């Protein structure tokens, strides 16, 4: 599969839910444009309407919110908030300080996600909050607070959403409150989004909103005199976490993939995902409001060792991109993954293993070593939108992937799979089949170079297997042993060089004896079956030119162009004669003609995958053509079907 195209991103979930709540808490009417439509934003919209806030849809992802100045009209309500952490935590804080009685609940997983640290912080200010189930977890009963104290301690090392909730709610108290963060604050970029949104609504937190650069993230003051004021109109940026899947798709699948809606200028920390992807070798350009990605020039991503504190959500995308890297990737400082929609470290490790990766997981890290070939697997998604979106990238492995419960993406990106389909295409294959010495290898190689595509010399695989068999003393008729050997040998193509079990193979591969041995083992069905996957693994972005006997009929039946390239037996014998002489090898033209005829006979008459002009293949007789003419003919046929 390859990736190419443009995606217009949906609005950021983090910004959407913050803006909706701040617009509701503000004085005045706010028009919110480019809001995300998703389960999580629906939960926030429902909750605000239940609380008596007037929210009108203006169409085209725009809403008008009439703020209540921090005083919700409905003083008693039950709110169901699904699995939306960005709704549950800030609403808990705002409602705890707003003078009403409310019951807050969610789906069963939400009731397993800790909230005790936020409740403890709010209680220090006089909030009256009771747990209706397990201590420290939703559901919650909130009663009117008796406000006391001007200092609050909150843990910052479990979820930054506790601090976000507290920050957004504190201006409702009307007095200055000092916040002391206990433990190392994680996910600071999300706090920066909170501060930026609060500043849009006229509230500045000292010193965090004012000082640029490195800060003491342990203390701040929310001044008492500031009230939320509507900014009139606010635009929601595209979602930088959602961008990560498409950026990774471009990096793995060739590109260019362009994303619109978020770029160089953004309040979202996850935009830095692009920098980490470029550390893996991806080539990325950025504009103010867009980014464009190409795969690394080498075609392969580099493995990295990364502290992911600055991109906790987008880091999941790196875990799956690691399947396409050249070594072991380690992602650390990701303990917060364990308290998200699911235990994301455990889920990620389980599903990566299914596609063949070797994975080590720790309390706050994951190490991923990619498999030689990504296996087909049915991926469980744990009701976690990011698991579903991340694992769509495994499809670039070529073996296909099944995503169970794909609709869970509705949490943040209901149209994800439709958008993914728009920018992904099957990697194009040009199949060139034909008899021995017809020139298919020469032509295929030059066409691949002209188009910047990869090249597969499938005959070399049969030749290599024949050589390996002879070296191990395996008879060329021993079908089972040969098929087993096909699964064991390590074959590597790099540039012009070919390695068999780590040893470079020379001209011995090109002798007529090696060709004849290859032709004998190629008639054995189990051998052909054993080599099928090895050949298909060559199909990589941006495209493949494959030559052989059954490229169009069996190995790549969906090739965009199928050529049956031939020449008279006499012309072929003459070409082979010249070729061998040029290499300083001995040759006899009559013997070569006889050998070519024998090979044609065996290749066309065998029962499995016989050499033939496949259905849909066009004939190219090169007897009267020179090499360049044959190459140009293939290129012009490709242009015609492209
Ligand atoms: N159109 C052509 N005119 C003249 N010579 C050609 C032409 N095409 C290829 N040749 C030459 O013929 C020889 C055989 O070509 P090549 O090895 O590409 O054939 P092939 O079909 O791939 O053979 P095999 O299947 O045995 O690997 C080479 O020396 C090549 O340069
Ligand atoms: N797809 C293929 C490719 C090759 N073979 C067999 O291997 C022999 C050697 O191939 P060369 O192209 O390197 O000459 C050839 O004679 C075929 O018997 C095949 O079966 N299928």
UniProtKB/TrEMBL annotation:
Subcellular location as annotated? Cytoplasm
Where would I find the Enolpyruvate transferase domain in this sequence?
4-418
Q: Which family does the record assign?
A: Belongs to the EPSP synthase family.
User: Under the cellular component aspect of Gene Ontology, which terms does the record hold?
Assistant: cytoplasm
Q: Which reaction does it catalyse?
A: dCMP + ATP = dCDP + ADP; CMP + ATP = CDP + ADP; 3-phosphoshikimate + phosphoenolpyruvate = 5-O-(1-carboxyvinyl)-3-phosphoshikimate + phosphate
Name under which the protein is recorded: Multifunctional fusion protein
Q: Which residues bind phosphoenolpyruvate?
A: 13, 85, 113, 161, 344, 386, 411
Which amino acids does the record list as binding ATP? 434-442
Q: Name one GO biological process term.
A: pyrimidine nucleotide metabolic process
Task: Kindly list the GO molecular function terms attached to this UniProt entry.
Answer: 3-phosphoshikimate 1-carboxyvinyltransferase activity; ATP binding; dCMP kinase activity
Q: Which organism is it from?
A: Sideroxyarcus emersonii
Q: Which HAMAP family match?
A: Cytidyl_kinase_type1, EPSP_synth
Documented EC number(s): 2.5.1.19, 2.7.4.25
The biological pathway it contributes to is: Metabolic intermediate biosynthesis; chorismate biosynthesis; chorismate from D-erythrose 4-phosphate and phosphoenolpyruvate: step 6/7
Q: Which residues form the Cytidylate kinase domain?
A: 430-638
**Active site residues of this protein:** 313 (proton acceptor)
Q: What class of enzyme is it?
A: transferase
**Which residues are recorded as binding 3-phosphoshikimate?**
13-14, 18, 159-161, 187, 313, 340
Quaternary structure note: Monomer.
Signal peptide limits = none
Highest taxon in the source lineage: Bacteria
Q: What keywords is this UniProt entry annotated with?
A: Amino-acid biosynthesis, Aromatic amino acid biosynthesis, ATP-binding, Cytoplasm, Kinase, Nucleotide-binding, Transferase
